[in-house]
Amino acid sequence: MTPLTHRFSNVPTELIPILTPVETPDFFELDPGPPAPAAEAYVRPAPTGGLWSAGDRITWIAGLILMLSSFMGWYSGSGVGVTLSVIGWHTGTLGKLVFFLGLAIIVIVALRELGFELPPSVPESLLILALGALALIFVLIRLISIPDSVLPADGRGIGLWISVVAALGVIVGGLLRAAEEL
């Protein structure tokens, strides 16, 4: 002990109010207080109805029709005593790609309805628009040029026109979905 501390060691603290005993806080037994709010995931707003919420329905119906249209007659014609009809699946790679693009559109819509969301960096409406535009390009190629493997087909069948309308429907559905997201 030093002489200074020895001198004040016996002084009662009641006489000097500034020297009242102080209890040091225990840092390990703190009251936790109210729990912190949990971080919530982004919740998709409920559709409000009307034309703007029709984007989902138009997209999956047009995607289904686009997928099935590759099994419809794209070309028809007649030869000597023979009437011919060629489905889109048998027109080459483009007919098969139209089927798989329609399937991809349906899978994207189904996954969204099941709760699986794409990352925010990939807007779903833009992906639907891109797939619809690609399908429209493939169908327009088949509309303009008849492949040599399906000759003597001299006309376009109803399935090809249904494919064009379905691809345009996918694009319209994607645009409506983009308007919903804004």
- Sheet-strand content, in percent, reads 5-15%
What value does the average pLDDT take? 81
Termini separation comes to 76 Å
Indicate the radius of gyration in whole angstroms. 36 Å
Quickly describe the structure.
The protein has helices spanning 3-8, 55-69, 93-113, 124-144, 158-181; strands spanning 73-78, 83-87, 155-156. It has 182 residues and is mainly α.
Relevant terms:
182 residues; mainly alpha; three-stranded antiparallel sheet
Overall description:
The protein has 182 residues and is mainly alpha-helical. The protein has helices at residues 3-8, 55-69, 93-113, 124-144, 158-181, and strands at 73-78, 83-87, 155-156. A 3-stranded antiparallel β-sheet has the order 2-1-3. Strand 1 (73-78) and strand 2 form a beta hairpin. Helix 2 (55-69) runs antiparallel to helix 3 and helix 3 packs antiparallel against helix 4 (124-144).
Map the helices and strands.
Layout: H1 3-8, H2 55-69, E1 73-78, E2 83-87, H3 93-113, H4 124-144, E3 155-156, H5 158-181
Antiparallel strand pairs: 1-2, 1-3
